[in-house]
């Protein structure tokens, strides 16, 4: 494993000086922070940052300009798109660049079902999807489309949190335009059986969309062997820059027609207008390629670190429960650990260890943190969901960080438990 090029993450303070921001960086020995939240985002690969740099300065021309500078920027984009396409074994014409998975999901789902040639008005998705899918579905319902939400396998089963295939099949009707199933879940790391789901959609003649945000760079994604009509991704989950993602269109056997959601300059064949971002696209391509190389070279490193974190925590804290699929099932992302504490709320544990960055089982929406809909879909009560936390081990996590985090978390937990008793 190559190191990130510095001693762990750097942390900073941001001040506003006149009209500019001044960012003061602290190195890790000045400010000890352990980052275990790689499902929320990942640090940008330093090699990707280096490759992006000239595109902000020397090679800054608009890639849609017809002069030499524009041509150079356009060629750079073409090469990067080729890299993305070959990494997932699809054709370069299938890649539409977006601002991230939220936009890709909206373009895929809304774009496919509102196309004037689409006659079917029923959609199927899963209870544990990201809000970037669920909220689009709710919005379409308001426009008169019907949506069926399929449950996941409940907690306690080896494949807990994956989509229930029997329910999925029975939800599809002759009116179903599109089925949307995430490749891997962002909270509990459950990996869905995409090959079976793809066969099922082929048999029923409906489009398949997959939000593969958490799968890209973490799993082998080969669109030659699994046919997916629409696939969404975002660079910042595989060590690329934020604000850049893609939608793969037409990876299956069916013809996909999309109604653009943004209109304007007609870039990207009119499917997604707007000046393309050469730096973001190059950073995304380099980061994706390097993540996949790392995955192939060292496939077990991250799961070993995750297993170490789990074994240390469960030997120091009695009664921990693993949420989601069991490790042995191989249906869980290698860096994912989502666990339930016996008697302390996840948010309290997080607040008592501010130097360790991880997530609680409640998503902050508005003022009140709501219990995670993914955990309640598994069958957990609201109280159990509030006692849950998510850790995400990543490519740049070191064993020393896992050991130090486990020690601090156990100590903080026992202090909280004493206060409670
Ligand atoms: C599964 C999943 N889908 C979609 C998104 C949204 O990605 P972005 O914020 O890059 O648009 C995320 C990010 O948290 C995610 O984990």
Explained architecture:
The protein has 421 residues and is α/β, with parallel strands linked by helices. It has 2 domains: 139 residues, Aspartate Aminotransferase, domain 1 (Alpha-Beta Complex), CATH 3.90.1150; 244 residues, Aspartate Aminotransferase, domain 2 (3-Layer(aba) Sandwich). Helices cover 35% and strands 17% of the residues. It is built from 12 helices and 17 strands. The strands form 5 sheets. The protein has a 7-stranded mixed sheet with strand order 4-10-9-8-7-5-6, sandwiched between helices. Strands 11-12-17-14 form a 4-stranded antiparallel sheet. Strand 1 and strand 2 form a beta hairpin. Helix 2 runs parallel beside helix 7. The radius of gyration is 22 Å and the shape is globular. The N terminus is likely disordered. Bound molecules: pyridoxal-5'-phosphate. The site of pyridoxal-5'-phosphate has 13 residues, from helix 3.
In DSSP terms (H or I, runs of 4 or more residues), the helix count works out at 12
The CATH class designation of the largest domain is Alpha Beta
CATH H-level superfamily of the largest domain: Type I PLP-dependent aspartate aminotransferase-like (Major domain)
Name the bound molecules: pyridoxal-5'-phosphate
pLDDT averaged over residues: 93
Mind sketching the topology for me?
Blueprint lengths: L10 E7 L2 E7 L7 E2 L10 H11 L11 H20 L7 E4 L2 H13 L8 E5 L4 H12 L3 E5 L14 H7 L4 E5 L13 H11 L2 E5 L18 E5 L10 E5 L28 H20 L3 H16 L4 E2 L13 E5 L5 H7 L3 E2 L1 E2 L1 E3 L4 E3 L1 H5 L4 H5 L1 E5 L6 H22 L1
Parallel strand pairs: 3-13, 5-6, 5-7, 7-8, 8-9
Antiparallel strand pairs: 1-2, 4-10, 9-10, 11-12, 12-17, 14-17, 15-16
The structure holds pyridoxal-5'-phosphate.
